[in-house]
């Protein structure tokens, strides 16, 4: 391996081996005012967080019943345009409940991208169902509808209204697109496939709060969707998530299931099935209400940062800065660099040199189909997901890297 150029060696002749140093230089220039080290993403608390959380403690409403829980559900529904939002302890639990609500059962297959955070597959597994891995497309970083359609034409057929995998004999119940790093999947063609094959559409919108697909908020197209408010997401409740749906009956069922299936009664404990203790506590919801008030500013600042990166990386040969697909307005949750195939060998050097220089950069997730618990699951050809896995690097994306009265 070549010796690393020092970051300020801007005088040196450009060769392929300069790439790690050049990436460090660009990050240095884009994030000149930022305190080092610069994490990949950290929460920003610049609003009413203290006031709202203190009010929970002062009024002793800290647990899952409380005014902030109801308010966060109303505010999320209003913001996203979904008819209903039901908050939950985290995004994984929200996704598990979504899948259960659309009828996913033991031994069903659920189509999910191989390139996603492990929670997407885990939520399927919690229901004793089986993840079936789908390839991604480079244009969106998410599930490839054209490739999925052609694949299903080969391996699936609809029998008595149920999609069946003719190779395994198992029902394929649902498809879960994941809007990777906030960039929306192309939902129109995917919806057509769901209609043709009688598949439920459940969106893993954990990363895409604030992202629009053709003007509509992500997570409002499927029968239901899961959001996450983990500490590294665009807004946070500490830990938390939500289910979005336009279906009132589904929303009521979601609330019932996540509240230990307890029937409304003044004093009696009546539970009518095995429910989950998945309801978000009021303390977390209070934080969420304060965060959601700031979401529009966070999004503006994140887009400004993305523009800054895009301009700065335009001149760097060997990497490209990933931009939202044409039909989308993305939240740019985590900014993405894609390495050219020719420079794959430099990925680890780039990760090492940027982290050594104090910039939190990360590779993407390993394909879930390569993890020990999922390696025997059904999968289609995953060549694009595999290429993205080797080429993708996330770079610092916290909204406070841009001041609120930002630059251009
Ligand atoms: C963050 C995330 C989740 C769920 O996260 P929680 O940590 O359980 O809130 C699910 N899917 C994806 C793709 C995620 O990034």
What does the model show?
The chain is α/β, with parallel strands linked by helices. Helices cover 34% and strands 15% of the residues. The chain has eleven helices and 16 strands. A seven-stranded mixed β-sheet has the order 1-11-10-7-6-2-3, with helices on both faces. α5 links the parallel β2 and β3. Pyridoxal-5'-phosphate binds next to α4 and α5.
Briefly, what is this?
This protein has 408 residues and is of the alpha/beta class. It contains eleven helices and 16 strands.
Distance between the termini: 38 Å
CATH-assigned homologous superfamily of the largest domain: Type I PLP-dependent aspartate aminotransferase-like (Major domain)
- Average of per-residue pLDDT values: 95
Helix content: 25-40%
Second rung of CATH, namely the architecture of the largest domain = 3-Layer(aba) Sandwich
Q: Would you state the CATH class of the largest domain?
A: Alpha Beta
Judged by helices, strands and strand pairing, the structural class is alpha/beta
Number of helices: 11
Count the beta strands.
16
Give the strand order of the largest sheet, numbering strands 1, 2, ... along the chain.
1-11-10-7-6-2-3
Radius of gyration: 22 Å
Q: What hetero molecules are in the model?
A: pyridoxal-5'-phosphate
State the CATH topology of the largest domain. Aspartate Aminotransferase, domain 2
Q: How would the global form be characterised?
A: globular
Unreliable residue stretches: 1-14
Q: Main beta sheet, described?
A: 7 strands, mixed
What is the domain tally?
Answer: 2
Q: Hey, roughly how much beta strand do the residues contain? A: 15-25%
């Amino acid at each position: 391996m070549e010796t690393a150029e020092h970051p300020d060696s801007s005088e040196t002749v450009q060769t392929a081996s300069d790439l790690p140093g050049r990436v460090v230089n660009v990050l240095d220039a884009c994030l000149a005012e930022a305190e080092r080290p610069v994490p990949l993403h950290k929460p920003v608390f610049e609003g009413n967080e203290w006031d709202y959380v203190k009010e929970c403690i002062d009024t002793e409403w800290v647990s899952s019943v409380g005014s902030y829980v109801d308010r966060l559900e109303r505010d999320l529904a209003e913001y996203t345009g979904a008819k209903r939002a039901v908050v939950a302890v985290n995004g994984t639990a929200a996704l598990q409940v979504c899948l259960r609500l659309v009828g996913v059962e033991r031994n069903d297959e659920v189509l999910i991208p191989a390139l996603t955070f492990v929670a997407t597959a885990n939520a399927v597994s919690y229901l004793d169902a089986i993840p079936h891995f789908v390839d991604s497309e480079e244009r969106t970083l998410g599930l490839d509808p054209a490739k999925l359609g052609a694949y299903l034409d080969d391996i699936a057929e609809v029998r008595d209204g149920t999609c069946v995998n003719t190779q395994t004999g198992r029902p394929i119940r649902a498809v879960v697109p994941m809007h990777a790093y906030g960039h929306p999947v192309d939902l129109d063609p995917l919806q057509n496939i769901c209609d043709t094959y009688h598949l439920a559409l459940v969106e893993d919108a954990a990363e895409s709060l604030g992202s629009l697909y053709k003007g509509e908020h992500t997570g409002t197209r499927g029968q239901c969707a899961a959001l996450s408010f983990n500490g590294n997401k665009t807004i946070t409740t500490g830990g938390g998530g939500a289910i979005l749906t336009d279906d009132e009956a589904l929303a009521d069922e979601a609330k019932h299931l996540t509240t230990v299936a307890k029937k409304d009664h003044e004093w009696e404990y009546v539970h009518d099935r095995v429910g989950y203790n998945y309801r978000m506590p009021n303390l977390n919801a209070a934080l969420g209400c304060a965060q959601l008030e700031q979401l529009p500013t966070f999004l503006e600042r994140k887009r400004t940062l993305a523009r800054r990166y895009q301009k700065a990386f335009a001149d760097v040969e060997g990497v490209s800065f990933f931009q939202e697909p044409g039909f989308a307005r993305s939240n740019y949750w985590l900014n993405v660099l894609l390495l050219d195939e020719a420079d794959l060998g430099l990925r680890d050097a780039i990760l090492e040199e940027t982290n050594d220089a104090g910039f939190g950069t990360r590779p993407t997730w390993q394909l879930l189909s390569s993890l020990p618990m999922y390696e025997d699951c059904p999968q289609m050809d995953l060549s694009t997901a595999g290429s993205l896995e080797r080429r993708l690097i996330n770079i610092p994306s916290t909204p406070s890297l841009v001041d609120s009265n930002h630059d251009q």
